[in-house]
């Protein structure tokens, strides 16, 4: 990611943060609509889960300026997701849902450059997390 893309992600997220609760509801409603099979991985009461999502996004967005400092926590999170039943094929669905949610939340501020910056940010992070979660499993099996 370029420094300009990092700035775009951080600036656009600052516009979503004030509506974080609504954004999280929108995200999970959409996720369960497009991937109903993942609903079973989540608690019935999604209140805390929605807070965790927005907290994690805030941490990731602020950490983009120093990616190396964020990667150990992302590794732990990726491995924890495996225990919840997450699979590598879930990551693209989650990414598409996140981008859809951001587009809805940002409205006219969702420009092609902002979309590309978020797509690249999610690609970097999800690629790392998939490698950490499923690479570790593959090594353990050998």
From TrEMBL:
The Globin domain covers 1-134
Q: Which family does it belong to?
A: Belongs to the globin family.
Q: Does the keyword Protease apply?
A: no
**What residue intervals traverse the membrane?**
none
Keywords, comma-separated and alphabetical: Heme, Iron, Metal-binding, Oxygen transport, Receptor, Transport
| InterPro entries, sorted | Globin, Globin-like_sf, Globin/Proto
Q: Name one GO molecular function term.
A: nitric oxide dioxygenase NAD(P)H activity
Q: Which domain of life is it from?
A: Bacteria
The identity of this protein, by name, is: Hemin receptor
Zinc recorded as keyword: no
Question: What broad taxonomic lineage does this protein's source fall under?
Answer: Bacteria, Pseudomonadati, Pseudomonadota, Alphaproteobacteria, Hyphomicrobiales
What is the scientific name of the source organism? Bradyrhizobium centrolobii
């Amino acid at each position: 990611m370029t420094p300009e893309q990092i700035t775009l992600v951080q600036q656009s997220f600052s516009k979503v943060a004030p509506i974080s609760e609504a954004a999280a509801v929108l995200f999970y409603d959409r996720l369960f609509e497009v991937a109903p099979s993942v609903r079973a991985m989540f608690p019935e009461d999604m209140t805390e889960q929605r807070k965790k999502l927005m907290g994690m996004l805030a941490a990731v967005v602020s950490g983009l300026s120093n990616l190396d400092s964020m990667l150990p926590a992302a590794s732990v999170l990726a491995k924890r997701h495996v225990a919840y039943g997450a699979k590598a094929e879930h990551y693209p669905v989650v990414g598409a849902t996140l981008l859809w949610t951001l587009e809805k939340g940002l409205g006219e501020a969702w420009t092609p450059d902002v979309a590309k910056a978020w797509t690249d940010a999610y690609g970097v992070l999800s690629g790392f997390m998939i490698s950490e979660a499923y690479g570790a499993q593959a090594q353990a099996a050998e």
